[in-house]
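From the methods appendix. Each design record in this collection lists the tokenized structure first, followed by the designed amino acid sequence. Records were kept in a plain field format so they could be parsed without special tools. The example shown here is representative of the layout used throughout.

RECORD:
FOLD TOKENS (340 positions):
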């Protein structure tokens, strides 16, 4: 039996040396390891006729030879695979050491850049970012903000309604109400987000746009604090040379209220088409929080004061980058977006 095994080893080594392709290796594998007629399989079937005294040593030798055949065939197949790959690479003249073609990297949208800059400035002043639902109730969107039922802002021509008391928020001020309901002063928050209004799309209007509204509530907050914060923000965002002007206005949420103007960035206040020859450009509205709003959220208006403001992200982006059409931000035109 040992003689047969040694002869089988010699035969296998001889046939392996002649196998130059994967097909030949597969045939050789079937000849020696086939489950029914493989030469090693048949030799193991004759194991029963071996004297008991030789079985242990012979069984060990058979198993070692079988394992060796499996390993050698696999090594030979790996060598052929590597040779085939090298031949293909040589034929196709591909230099695998060359760097690959890199896809162009993306970058933030201009509105995202402006929003991040606004958030960064207020974060440096200790403001935190709050978020809220885009589908709101009329209570949070209007009533709690001191906007009565007969106010023009609640007209169906200006607001997207789902029902009598459910709508797409027209500003992010509802987030301020929700925050004041669950948190006690002192508060310093900004509320960035998307808002919706029934505006016909044109160069300066879009039915979907972004706002960053802010709120500060504490004891002994005065108009001076409000004025100083707004001037710091505008000078930080535009430049230290920016002049800021406050004009009296009216908003249901604030009293007193003000419209904020800055000196025109394009003509430095001398007058041009952008500022309509006035030297000033309106940027956003703001003011001291109306005590009636504090009553809706359970904050004592005798003890606490505050101020609030609302910033249009698109408007700031248009002024910062000199864009004359708000719709450019929403048309996904790569020729426009690649400029930022």
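DESIGN:
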């Amino acid at each position: 039996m040992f003689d047969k095994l040694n002869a089988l080893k010699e035969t296998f080594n001889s046939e392996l040396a002649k196998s130059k392709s994967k097909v030949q290796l597969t045939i050789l594998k079937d000849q020696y390891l086939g489950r029914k007629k493989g030469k090693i399989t048949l030799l193991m079937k004759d194991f029963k006729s071996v004297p008991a005294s030789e079985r242990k040593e012979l069984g060990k030798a058979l198993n070692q030879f079988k394992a060796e055949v499996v390993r050698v065939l696999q090594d030979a197949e790996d060598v052929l695979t590597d040779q085939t790959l090298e031949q293909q690479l040589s034929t196709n003249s591909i230099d695998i050491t060359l760097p690959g073609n890199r896809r162009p990297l993306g970058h933030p949208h201009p509105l995202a850049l402006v929003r991040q800059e606004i958030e960064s400035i207020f974060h440096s002043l200790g403001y935190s970012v709050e978020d809220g639902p885009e589908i709101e109730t009329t209570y949070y969107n209007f009533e709690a903000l001191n906007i009565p039922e007969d106010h023009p802002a609640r007209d169906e021509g200006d607001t997207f309604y789902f029902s009598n008391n459910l709508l797409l928020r027209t500003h992010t001020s509802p987030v301020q109400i929700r925050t004041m309901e669950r948190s006690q002063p002192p508060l310093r928050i900004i509320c960035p987000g998307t808002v919706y209004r029934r505006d016909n799309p044109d160069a300066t209007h879009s039915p979907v746009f972004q706002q960053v509204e802010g709120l500060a509530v504490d004891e002994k907050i005065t108009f001076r604090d409000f004025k100083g914060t707004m001037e710091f923000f505008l000078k930080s965002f535009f430049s230290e040379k920016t002049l800021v002007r406050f004009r009296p206005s009216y908003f249901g949420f604030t009293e007193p209220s003000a419209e904020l103007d800055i000196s025109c960035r394009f003509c430095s206040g001398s007058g041009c088409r952008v500022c309509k020859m006035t030297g000033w450009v309106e940027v956003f509205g703001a003011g001291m929080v109306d005590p009636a709003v504090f009553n809706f959220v359970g904050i004592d208006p005798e003890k606490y004061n505050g101020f609030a403001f609302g910033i249009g992200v698109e408007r700031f982006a248009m002024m910062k980058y000199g864009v004359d059409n708000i719709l450019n931000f929403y048309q996904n035109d790569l020729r426009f977006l690649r400029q930022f």
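APPENDIX NOTE: The first strand starts at residue 128 and ends at 129.
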